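Bug #2210: token dump truncated for DUF2974 domain-containing protein?
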Amino acid sequence: MSNLFDYLTWRNDLTFSKVPCCAVDTLICSCLSYLRLQPVFAKQDMLYVKRASEIIRAINPEEIHFRVKEDLQLLHKMAEGNRYGNVILCGYVDHLDPSMEKQFYALTCLLEDDVMLITYRGTDNTLVGWKEDFNMTFLDTIPSQKEAVQYLETMAIAYPDRRIILCGHSKGGNLAVYAAAFCSFAIQNRIQRVYNHDGPGFSAETLQAAGYRSIAQRIETFVPQSSVVGMLMEHEEHYTVISSTQISLWQHDPYPWEVLGPDFVRLDALDRQSIVLDSTIKHWISELDRSQREAFTDAVFQILSNTNAASFKEMNENRMHSTALILKALNRTDKQTKKMLSDIILKLLSSAKSAIETNLENGKPTN
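Reproduced locally. Full output below:
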């Protein structure tokens, strides 16, 4: 079945002025945001996609940082055709602040049909990025969400005559929705659509905000059939289930998502595994108050920080050494914290057992 690369092969000859931006295009731009483009923007504030590809090809491969190799391949594929080759990239921002527990990246794509597409990066493999994600379970607002609003307002003022599309994958989808919900009313009126690709939801308080209510009908959320990340927290908007050739948690990776023509391959419902996991996590979180969630998150990441690794990739590259340091840190943890971690993990196991039993009961045939 076709994927994003096949879509580019098929559609990359037609400019955005001939065929407007669709959901698949926004996932492509969301994937592009995972590529660290510091070398590209070192001496210029804006450039065409095809020029960005030329610069990347010319530099030492060891200086290029990307999440997976497909992110780099995607940029070069985009540069080959008329649709993306002349798209202007600008507004590059890449902030990683351990003291604020913030990981934020945004990029703006100026399309040929007077549309400004803003894409927010999802969680990378840094410990800071993952810690900020976990902070969502006990904070109504995280630092990257606030910066997402500021970024949108800055770019909207810089390009006052352009219509706006927001998008992102994983946490990037969450940031896109949050920015649309909490920007000024004037800017919100310019937003055409918001595309959330398997991004987590929000607290109940956020969903009740007037800004969210007014943008909700313009949000499109896509999740693979075994979605986990995209089902976290609370969602009120309708979501579309799409097919992925991967399995289980690996379906969060957007490259195996199936595409047919100008759209994703759509399915009727989530599979049973996703439903069980979603029920487990939601029940587990509901069993903990905010202070417990915060204490658990801080304890876990404090233990991981003892590896002195900045990312999970670094931890994996030094797996034996990192494991030894984690076990040593766990052994030094005080009894009260150990008991708290143990109790919360037991609650997770209990929630999983309850979710499986409920799902099995609901799946029984009726007479």
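Output looks complete on our side. The chain has a mean pLDDT of 89. Marking as cannot-reproduce; reopen if the truncation happens again.
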